[in-house]
Amino acid sequence: MAMNLEEQLEQMVAGSMYNDVTQELNTARRESVMLTREYNETWGNHKKFGKAFFRKYLVRLG
Questions:
Q1: Alpha-carbon torsion 19, 20, 25, 27, what sign?
Q2: What is the pLDDT of residues 26-59, one digit of tens each?
Q3: Contact by Cβ (8 Å): 11, 3
Q4: Distance CA 48, CA 31 (A)
Q5: Which of 2, 6, 8, 33 is the most buried (most CB within 10 A)?
Q6: What's the whole-model pTM score?
Q7: Angle 8-38-6 from CA coordinates, rounded to 5°
Q8: Furthest-apart CA atoms within the chain: distance in Å
Q9: Which residues, at least 6 apart from 11, have a Cβ–Cβ distance to it below 8 Å?
Q10: Where do the Maltose/galactoside acetyltransferase domain residues begin and end (predicted)?
Q11: Residue 62: pLDDT above 70?
Q12: Between 20 and 53, where is the model more confident?
């Protein structure tokens, strides 16, 4: 049975086996790379992103 992205992330966090080449994970990985590049390009001027950026993309930290 195919799992959605949230279910796949739960498998990862639990340390369970999961398929790391699903379309959902590939898309999430690609988006993460793009966001990281965008953030890194602001070196010295991170205020450009503000709190809204971090609230939106880092909601699962902590």
A1: negative
A2: 998 998 899 888 878 877 776 767 777 777 777 6
A3: yes
A4: 19
A5: 8
A6: 0.65
A7: 10
A8: 46
A9: 3, 17, 18
A10: 12-55
A11: no
A12: 20
